[in-house]
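Cross-check.
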Amino acid sequence: MKLIVGILLVLALEQDKLRIRIQPLVPTEKAWPVGGTIERPEDTLLQIYALRLERRWDAKIGKFRESPSAESRIWARALVSRKEFQAILPKAPSGFYRLCVCEEASELHAERLLLGRSSDLTASWVGLSERLEQCRGRLAKLLELAEKVSKDETTAGPTVKKEFMSALAKEDRFLEETALKSDFTAAPALLRSVVWQLRNAQIWRSTAVDDEERKFLDPKTTFLSLGSTMAVAQTVISAEWRTSILSVLGELLGRAAERPGKLLPAVRRGGFEALKALESNPEVDKDFTSAVRHAAEVDENTMKDLKAALDALQAALVEKP
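Predicted model, tokenized:
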């Protein structure tokens, strides 16, 4: 009997999936309210989960992949009332999340949404990619020093090691904070992988080994491969900057579809912020630049074409799940 009831519940939930709608409400200083409609009985208890989506660069396809982070999960409960519900999620880092509506152990609905203040993300468009590139340059010098130490081409006493480890720690803190507070997650993760390898490298006199494959915790890692990773990071920083702009503008434009008169100004503000960022990145391709300029002056007549352009540009950078 329980099995039959369970099957009927699953079938009912499958039928209801297409009738669930959810949207972020105005965030506050301490919380992120979300609300929606759902075809479920009165007083049904729902669980609303949000897992932050993080990018990682897939070198094989030359695109980003997004995946939810279990470490960045927030949740709240909600009761259905007159086929509506509202949940108050605790504040977390602004960004893109996989938002799930669940009943007991069943996931009724899930979608990708921007939670928090979009201004937190647009603020990172100006200057942050340059700071990440500067970080990459400093790590390249540390990598060069590590290789010289491993070959006994430079003095490697306790003071040198202490300064080396201190410099790595400083870069790691910057990268960790960047991933937490901005829409850049792939570039910091890639550079932190280099930091991790260098921090644990068996190159100092007390632990040094001659075998190249045993200098690092990952036997496939070499100084040559770390150099290649640093070169790829330059591409990733630029690509993630563009991806962030396209993702945020596309999300804001999607929200504006139902209420353009009220929400299109947010799209234009985002486009204006992106235009300011373009001033320090003059070598961006023409299609991207054109889309950003159109976003800064979008109206109801150009919304559809702009959305198609943004989606096409993003598809070239992000692999669909």
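The beta strands are 21-24, 31-37, 45-58, 63-79, 84-90, 95-103, 106-115. Residues 108 and 215 are 49 Å apart (CA to CA). Passed to J.P. for a second look.
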